[in-house]
Amino acid sequence: MSDANSRSIVSNQPGLHEKLDEIVTKHLTAEFKKPIAAHTQAAFDEVNAKVQAFAGPLILDSCCGVGESTANLAKRHSNALVIGIDKSSHRLDKHDIEYKQTDSGQYILVQADLNDFWRLAVAANWQPTHHYLLYPNPWPKAKHIQRRWHGAAIFPFIVKLGGLLEVRSNWDIYVKEFAQALKLAGQSCEVEQYGSDIAITPFERKYWASGQQSHRLVINLTTG
User: Fold this and answer.
1) 0.85 exceeded by the pTM?
2) CB burial class (10 A; 0-12, 13-18, 19+) of residue 125?
3) pLDDT 10s digits, 89-100
4) Under CATH, to which class is 19-221 assigned?
């Protein structure tokens, strides 16, 4: 499939999910008791040692895919340590050699389940200056609402991580739902259509080449 023929999101959901508020409110008031997987604990411990030894800003690139966005963010924030996290070793293994750590920025790629990794980051008192969620899997079928990050039990930990959160998607409903979930958590923001000359992820490049629109929210999460 060429970049210019990237498929648009198809969903049986015409607007915000009818049970979104109910689901988010439940997760905001419940305790997340799922045990931490041993492999994610081990991956986190290795990365955490590097984070604790680093004196500069910390940036998270969650759902980083092949890590192209992580490398681009490291170049954009050259004084920071950027942590790219994805659950797929298959995607991370595609990280091109040209994106390996250089003097253009510092970054680490880690394979981990974000449902565990985010909780461990909160427990370790990580305080990222920025947190990017760029084109996560939208799970567009209505029945999969709780597989979207804002509809999942882990959502409160995204809020607890703080920092300047930026969420981008080519499906406006995803970003609008995320904004509504943040509002329920006491964090209000606007959703805007977004465009630029420079794509920082492979998906973004494909979507723009096929004429699709990007939507985003940017919010400075206060955790006091």
Assistant:
1) yes
2) exposed
3) 777 877 765 555
4) alpha beta
